[in-house]
Design a protein that fits this description.
Blueprint: H1 3-6, E1 15-16, E2 37-38, E3 40-46, H2 74-79, E4 84-85, E5 90-91, E6 96-100, E7 112-114, H3 116-127, E8 131-136, E9 139-140, E10 142-147, E11 150-155, E12 157-158, E13 160-162, E14 168-170, E15 173-184, E16 187-198, E17 205-207, E18 214-216, E19 227-228, E20 239-241, E21 244-251, H4 269-305, H5 332-357, H6 368-394, H7 400-428, H8 437-464, H9 490-497, H10 499-517, E22 522-523, H11 525-552, H12 559-567, H13 569-584, H14 590-628
Parallel strand pairs: 1-22, 15-21
Antiparallel strand pairs: 2-5, 3-4, 3-8, 6-21, 7-20, 8-9, 8-12, 10-11, 13-14, 14-19, 15-16, 17-18
């Protein structure tokens, strides 16, 4: 789970296409003949109450004779996936009613005897509402549910449940439902994977002579008693549990290319569509109004100032500060670092989103989204270093190496430092979300061996490039700034202006938070692209409008203000994440709370750098244009 921190430049979401079919580049369907062995692999266990993934065999489930872990990519490791084999034996088109999963070979018994410590571990995970995740043919397991007569799906399947008397009941029997599409004679494709879990006490089982087949006895009116985990065991006392499973194959008309459509039922698609369209239209309407006002007002101002036959026109408003508007701001080195980081983040989001739109980051490519985001971050270091260094030179900086190194270390250092500290908490919990030491070393090598050199290379060429020119000269004496209206104060203007960019993303933010923290699937990258465009427009126009109002009020200190104004939406992002935590989640333990707010702060900080840079660059171009369009004596 700490991989979200180490790769927070990416939107940690899982891609699922819309209702239409799609093609995944480089992925081909696999056909199974009758009797072919189907591998069932365990991925991990997750909970919406804890945020700490665990390896499936962190609990004493039935194991195969030898655990074989699949080699995972960087994204899978950072997500906490630990994909391994399971003892389930499934053959294509061979239904199984009840089969024993494992036996205690030492005792020669059909039952597994669990001691007090093992029972307590089961009880803890059940009460924390952990769900297990399996994959078959790279398709994740799902649990069908009926909520208010509407069929929906749960990602994974619960390992147990808590009854009305607060007892932890273990699901010791699962029925694996595999939907198959007949491709041709004796060739089937897997298009669905569901799991139904049940809890049956040992007394309910009738074992056949071969000691592997079984039946579950019922009286026809009610289910057998469940397996209630007795966490009051003491000493050497044990509790017996029988593990079993069934397999059912169901013919389906679903085409292989559309098999991921089922997972769209994990979220409310109609509300998503309506909310995004409503937000998009509203923000575009407001942006159009701001744009029309600023363009019309400026056109009149410039036309009035440039009239050749009117020499008696006295400069007013924004023209009065022409001698101070391009004066370097205080701490301009820090500002250029922020801008370089923002450009790098903007590039990561844009390029990763482009790959997602092209269908190259599909759910079949597990961990690809995070892996691509990290790789793009490395290469975008050259652009971030270039523009940071050139702006640094424009404002009078001379130590380009120092500036480049700070730019390369700023955001990754915060992310890595936070992740490193949180990793100790996650390691202490024995979670699979803890980043292994070798992966830590690999990330450090990528950072210092890839990102830092590219940022310095970009800084070198950016500093060699000619500095940006300004249309006016800077006066020797600083012009005093008159008293400003209350709404133009730094804090108030940032809070007021940040509402508009946040309005462009808050609906989408809800679904992204669901994907990250509630183990849901994220989809509709086309809408995310539209929201991204609206965010750019909103940050651009709100920064320009607020800066123009500053100039009209004879306040020439715009450099930091325009960055903070457009980046102010990050404050609302963090506030919304806090609201989401207390209204949507049910987290009570300290470690998950620390993880949630640390990750949310990192994401909000990244949002601040990216949106602040968008507003700053737009205002930088705007300011040079308007002062270059008027005659300055």
């Amino acid at each position: 789970m700490s991989g979200i921190v180490l790769a927070s430049v990416a939107a940690t979401v899982i891609v699922v296409p819309q209702v239409q079919a799609f093609y995944i580049p480089g992925v081909a369907p696999k056909e199974y003949a009758d009797g072919d062995l189907i591998d069932v692999k365990a991925v991990k266990m997750t909970s919406t109450r804890q945020f700490l993934p665990f390896e499936y065999y962190s609990l004493p489930f039935c194991r195969p004779e030898k655990l074989v872990y699949r080699k995972e990519n960087l994204g899978e490791v950072l997500r906490g996936d630990r994909i391994t084999n399971t003892p389930y034996t499934i053959k294509m088109n061979e239904n199984v009613t009840c089969k024993l999963l494992c036996m205690d070979s030492a005792a020669g018994s059909k039952e597994i005897a669990y001691g007090a410590k093992q029972i307590k571990r089961f009880v803890q995970r059940i009460k924390q509402e952990y769900r297990a995740h399996f994959i078959v043919d790279n398709l994740p397991s799902a649990t069908k549910m009926l909520v208010d007569e509407v069929t929906t799906y749960l990602h994974g399947f619960p390992i147990g449940y808590v009854d009305s008397e607060s007892n932890a009941n273990l699901f010791n029997h699962i029925t694996i439902v595999i939907k198959i599409h007949k491709f041709e004679e004796n060739a089937h494709r897997i298009v669905g994977f569901e799991i139904k879990a049940g809890s049956f006490s040992p007394e309910a089982y009738k074992i056949d002579n071969d000691k592997r087949s079984c039946t579950i006895a019922t009286d026809g009116n009610s289910l057998p008693p469940p397996v209630i985990m007795n966490d009051k065991l003491e000493g050497d006392a044990t509790q017996p549990v029988i593990w079993s499973y069934g397999v059912r194959f169901e013919p389906s008309d679903i085409a292989w290319a559309s098999r991921w459509d089922t997972y769209l039922k994990m979220a409310d698609v109609e509300i998503h569509w309506f909310s995004i369209i409503n937000s998009f239209i509203t923000v575009l309407f407001l942006s159009a109004i701001f744009g029309a006002i600023i363009v019309r007002t400026l056109s009149n101002d410039i036309a009035k100032y440039n009239e050749d036959d009117d020499d008696e026109v006295e400069p007013t408003g924004w023209k009065l500060v022409h001698g101070d508007v391009f004066r370097p701001p205080p701490h301009f080195g820090v500002l250029t670092m922020f801008v370089g980081t923002g450009i790098q983040l903007f590039g990561v989001f844009a390029v990763t989103l482009l790959f997602a739109l092209l269908g190259m980051l599909s759910p079949a490519s597990r961990g690809a989204l995070m892996t691509v985001a990290i790789v793009v971050w490395l290469f975008m270091g050259a652009s971030g270093g270039y523009y940071s260094s050139r702006l640094y030179k424009t404002l009078g900086g001379t130590q380009w190496k120092d500036n480049g190194m700070k730019t390369a270390m700023l955001f990754p250092g915060i992310v890595f430092g936070t992740g490193f500290v949180l990793n100790f908490f996650i390691w202490h919990q024995h979670s699979s979300g803890a980043v292994p030491f070798t992966t830590m070393i690999a990330l450090l090598l990528m950072w210092f061996g890839g990102s830092v050199p590219l940022v310095l290379l970009g800084s070198y060429f950016g500093f060699r490039k000619e500095a940006y020119s300004f249309p006016t000269h800077v006066n020797t004496i600083v012009r005093p700034i008159p008293e400003q209206a209350w709404f133009l104060s730094p804090v108030v203007s940032v809070l007021l202006a940040g509402v508009l960019p946040f309005g462009a993303v808050f609906i989408e933010l809800f679904f992204i938070l669901n994907a990250i923290w509630e183990n849901q699937f994220y989809y509709l990258f086309g809408f995310l692209f539209l929201v991204f465009i609206v965010l750019i427009i909103s940050c651009t126009e709100i920064a320009i409008v607020m800066t123009y109002m500053q100039f009209c009020a004879e306040d020439h200190q715009w450099w930091w203000r325009c960055f903070n104004v457009s980046g102010g939406c990050a404050f609302y992002v963090m506030a919304y994440a806090t609201f989401y935590f207390f209204t949507k989640l049910e987290v009570t333990d300290a470690v998950p709370m620390v993880i949630y707010f640390s990750y949310s702060a990192i994401m909000s900080l990244g949002m601040f750098f990216m949106t602040g840079t968008i507003g700053f660059l737009a205002t930088f171009v705007f300011t040079r244009k308007i002062y270059g369009a008027v005659k300055i004596d």
